[in-house]
Specification:
This protein has 145 residues and is of the alpha+beta class. The protein binds zinc ion (3 copies). The site of one zinc ion has 7 residues, from α6.
């Protein structure tokens, strides 16, 4: 489901009341590419919808996740959403400088397959960011000689 009208229809079909505010929030979310944070949506809507309610934004994100349009990801201390169909990457978060980078999910295919073979567990590396040290920080921490 990639289009705003289809999403609004699906929500209506499930008995959710579609206020003009909620319609605007859904349209904004559907128009966003990449990472979707609740704060971004509030910011983007503020001009057009003065007094947009944060909890309506959060509730709408929840609903869109419920119907499979969005999927949430944890990035260390924060979390955010992606369009579920476009979530093809894992996030690497540096626990020293906080910088995030993305790697394609296929880069972890061998780890995923090995885990599955040994334990039967199918890992979803898109759900939690992987924390560690970025190359920059490692460079800075390297003892100089
Ligand atoms: Zn991402
Ligand atoms: Zn979660
Ligand atoms: Zn770093």
């Amino acid at each position: 489901m990639q289009n705003t009208d289809a999403v609004l229809d699906e929500l209506k079909r499930r008995g959710h009341r579609m206020t003009p505010q909620r319609r605007a929030i859904v349209a904004e979310i559907m128009a966003m590419a990449g990472h979707i944070s609740p704060q971004d949506i509030v910011q983007r809507l503020e001009d057009r919808l003065p007094g947009v309610n944060d909890s309506t934004v959060y509730r709408t994100l929840d609903l869109l996740e419920e119907i499979g349009v969005l999927s949430h990801t944890h990035f260390g201390t924060s979390s955010g959403y992606h369009h579920a169909e476009r979530l093809d990457h894992t996030h690497l978060v540096c626990n020293r400088c906080g910088r995030t980078r993305q790697i394609h999910i296929e880069a972890l295919a061998s780890v995923r397959d090995e885990l599955e073979e040994k334990t039967g567990f199918l890992a979803d590396f898109t759900h939690q960011a992987i924390s560690g040290l970025c190359s920059n920080c490692r460079e800075q921490l390297r003892p100089s000689d």
